[in-house]
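hiii, so i know i said id send this last week but things got crazy w the move. better late than never?? heres the sequnce for the chain we talked about at the cafe, plus the structure i predicted for it. fair warning i was half asleep when i ran it
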Amino acid sequence: MRLYAPVLCRTVQISGRSADLYRPAGPVRAGIVFLHGGGFVEGSRAQFASICRHLCSRYPVICLSLDYRLAPAFAFPAPIQDAVAAFRWLMRTARLSADRVFLAGGSPGGCIAALAVLAAPRRQARWGVPPGPLPRRAILLNGICDLTAFYRQNPEEQARVRAFLGGDLTRMPLASPAAYSPSGRWLLLHGSADQVVPPAQCRAFA
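okay and structure toks below
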């Protein structure tokens, strides 16, 4: 039997959004902000609860699983603002440098994580992100990287994408990570059996 170290968990508020903070009992050397899936319109921070507990019990890492704002009530770039706010909060709370805090997202959460890393200073103000440090590293788990191709190839998902874009399809290139030069450090993980977000999405950004 393998014994795991205890994990401390509590719910916190970050800019009005709920998040679950998972912390190992010992020292912390890195942090991860998790952004759930759900097609931009649903899902919750509970998706990554077991992963957060597992990581914190095995490694000196602090994890934060965030309930970012969802469409249609909140469209792009609101989730990017939430992701950056959570990143900065974890930096301050854990006293970590920007290079020690990662964003990790699944499916649409991967899209949001990528866009947050790509929110370079010239896009920061336009996306409503206050001045301050930006994430530089992301882990994309079956992430949506080419929003235009995803929209074209998945008619059943088009209503969700339109909601994410606030009904304005002309904004699609702005919200597609593949449209930007991939600055930062990336880990792209994609299952070959995913029929909704195919592996070509990962290759479009690699």
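btw The first helix runs from residue 49 to 58. thought thatd interest u
miss u guys!!
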